[in-house]
Design a protein that fits this description.
By secondary structure, the chain is mainly α. The chain has 13 helices and no strands. It is globular, with a radius of gyration of 18 Å.
């Protein structure tokens, strides 16, 4: 980023500040800094239209709110910005479409647990997001859909073996796709759900992996990726 600043490269600087940088703040357990940095960066960017920088900023802001547990704010932000995102045509890009559906599903799950709107409607929204991700027919996307479905079942009160089976399936998919953070978060929740010595070993393994990646609050990171699996 300093190189972009030195060259007065507003495009490069803004892109870096609203894409990867917020998630570094979340790894440091500082969601407020992530939101402040995004706001400052967008203040120097065009307010016209909806560019890829606006998409990155939306993803970062929603993720920071979700991480912090500001569910009223996160649901409002996503609902307000969704029409602009659709008009931008960025959802024609498979990666953007898939990651955005995953984020939309996680926000719906988190909102359903806080009664931010109609719970059953929100769970249906999360299920639709999972179905749209599955329709992409991509090996790396499939475990995201499975994890959302596990969240829907957990939010509806299912426990035990049905959730364990879904989490094991998601874990296998994330590992096969080299998605280390997702795999660690699934191991964390699989450990919580399974219990016993095996469960503790899974949870400890997940914590150790995340701490080795300089993630200061493994549980909050796990909640970010699978909010409905957190203890009620």
């Amino acid at each position: 980023m300093s190189e972009s600043q030195r060259r007065n490269d507003r495009y490069g600087e803004t892109s870096l500040r609203v894409s990867g940088a917020p998630f570094i703040c979340l790894a440091q357990d500082d969601p407020q800094r992530a939101k402040d940095d995004i706001s400052e960066a967008l203040g120097k960017w065009s307010a016209q239209g909806f560019h890829v920088q606006h998409y990155y900023a939306l993803t970062g802001q929603v993720s920071a709110d979700l991480y912090a547990g500001d569910i009223d704010e996160v649901h409002r932000t996503l609902c307000e910005r969704w029409p602009a995102l659709r008009r931008s045509l960025l959802l024609r890009v498979q990666l953007v479409r898939t990651l955005t559906n995953d984020l939309r599903g996680r926000v719906a799950l988190a909102a359903s647990l806080r009664n931010v709107g109609d719970k059953q409607a929100l769970l249906r929204e999360a299920s639709r997001a999972a179905a749209q991700i599955e329709a992409e027919n991509m090996p790396w996307a499939r475990p995201m859909a499975i994890l959302l479905r596990a969240g829907v079942q957990a939010a509806r009160g299912d426990t035990g073996e049905p959730i364990v089976a879904l989490l094991r399936d998601a874990l296998q998919g994330f590992q096969a796709s080299d998605m280390g953070l997702h795999a660690a978060c699934v191991r964390f929740w699989l450990g919580k759900v399974s219990g016993g010595d095996e469960g503790r070993a899974l949870e400890d393994s997940a914590r150790s992996w995340m701490e080795a990646q300089c993630i200061k609050n493994p549980e909050r990171m796990a909640i970010l990726l699978a909010p409905a699996l957190a203890p009620k």
